[in-house]
C-alpha cells in the first residue's frame, strides 16, 4: 500500500557524511569525516546483519547538548563505496524510529492502518510492558526496527563477521503477549516492522529461538494481533514512507 500522504520527515539540519572506521563496542562507532576522527554513538544494540561496519560510508547527526557523552550519532550506513556520489542508505536509528512513525501517523500517511487518527499517545503502560503507541484509545501499535538480520542483497565486497548464537527473545515475546491480552479491552493491536532500506520482505530470524518466536507469533495472531511491515527510505535530508502492508507469512 502506498502512503496516503506524501509528507516526509525532514532532518534539520541535514545529516552529515563520513566513514565508519570501527565499532569498539555495541554503543560506539569511530568515524572519520573531513579529515577529523571522532567517537559517535551507535543507536543499534545488536549486530547489523553479519557485516563488518569498518569502511562503510555513514550518515551522522550532531548535537549541541553538553550533557551527551558523544556529540554525534550514526544514523545510517551504506553498502556502496565511499567514493560513489549517490548512495543507498540503511537507516540504523532504532530509537528515532518511533519519532518517524509518529510523524507519519499524525500526517495521515498510514491511511489503511490508522486512517486520520485524532489521538496518538506514546509509551503507554500495558501490563508489565510499555507499548509504543495508543491510537484513538482503541489501537495499540508496537514498532520494531529489526537489524539483526538484513533483508537485502549485500555486495560481496562488504566484509562479514561470524554469526554468533542469538537467544534474546524475552522482550519481543513479552510484547506479543501483552498485545494479545490487550485485545480483551481494545479493538485492534498491531506490530509494525519497519525497515529503512529497500528490502525483499521481513522474515523472522532463523536462530536458536526461531521455534519459540513462531509459537509466540501464532498465539498473538490467534488472539487477533495484526503484523504489518513498512518500508522506508532515508538519506541526508529526510525519511520517506515508501509502502506498507500486512504480513502474510513468517
Automatic annotation (TrEMBL):
Pfam family, one: SfsA
Entry GO MF terms: DNA binding
SfsA N-terminal OB domain mapped to chain residues: 21-90
Sections of the chain in a coiled coil: none
Matching Gene3D superfamilies: 2.40.50.580, 3.40.1350.60
Domain Sugar fermentation stimulation protein C-terminal: 97-235
Stated name of the protein: Sugar fermentation stimulation protein homolog
Organism of origin: Leptogranulimonas caecicola
Taxonomic lineage of the native organism: Bacteria, Bacillati, Actinomycetota, Coriobacteriia, Coriobacteriales
Amino acid at each position: 500500500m502506498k502512503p496516503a500522504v506524501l509528507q516526509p520527515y525532514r532532518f534539520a539540519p541535514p545529516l552529515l557524511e563520513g566513514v565508519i572506521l570501527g565499532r569498539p563496542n555495541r554503543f560506539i562507532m569511530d568515524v572519520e569525516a573531513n579529515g577529523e576522527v571522532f567517537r559517535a554513538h551507535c543507536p543499534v544494540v545488536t549486530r547489523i546483519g553479519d557485516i563488518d561496519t569498518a569502511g562503510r560510508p555513514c550518515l551522522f547527526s550532531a548535537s549541541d547538548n553538553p550533557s551527551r557523552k558523544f556529540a554525534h550519532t550514526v544514523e545510517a550506513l551504506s553498502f556502496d563505496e565511499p567514493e560513489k556520489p549517490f548512495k543507498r542508505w540503511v537507516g540504523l536509528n532504532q530509537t528515532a524510529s518511533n519519532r518517524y512513525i509518529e510523524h507519519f501517523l499524525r500526517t495521515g500517511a498510514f491511511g489503511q492502518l490508522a486512517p486520520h487518527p485524532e489521538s496518538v499517545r506514546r509509551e503507554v503502560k500495558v501490563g508489565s510492558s510499555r507499548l509504543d503507541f495508543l491510537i484513538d484509545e482503541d489501537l495499540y501499535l508496537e514498532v520494531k526496527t529489526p537489524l539483526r538480520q538484513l533483508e537485502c542483497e549485500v555486495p560481496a565486497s562488504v566484509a562479514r563477521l561470524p554469526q554468533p548464537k542469538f537467544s534474546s527473545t524475552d522482550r519481543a515475546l513479552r510484547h506479543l503477549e501483552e498485545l494479545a491480552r490487550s485485545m480483551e479491552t481494545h479493538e485492534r493491536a498491531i506490530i509494525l516492522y519497519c525497515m529503512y532500506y529497500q528490502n525483499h520482505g521481513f522474515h523472522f530470524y532463523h536462530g536458536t529461538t526461531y521455534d519459540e518466536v513462531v509459537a509466540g507469533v501464532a498465539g498473538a495472531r490467534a488472539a487477533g494481533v495484526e503484523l504489518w511491515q513498512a518500508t522506508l527510505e532515508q538519506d541526508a535530508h529526510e525519511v520517506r514512507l515508501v509502502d506498507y502492508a500486512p504480513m502474510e507469512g513468517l
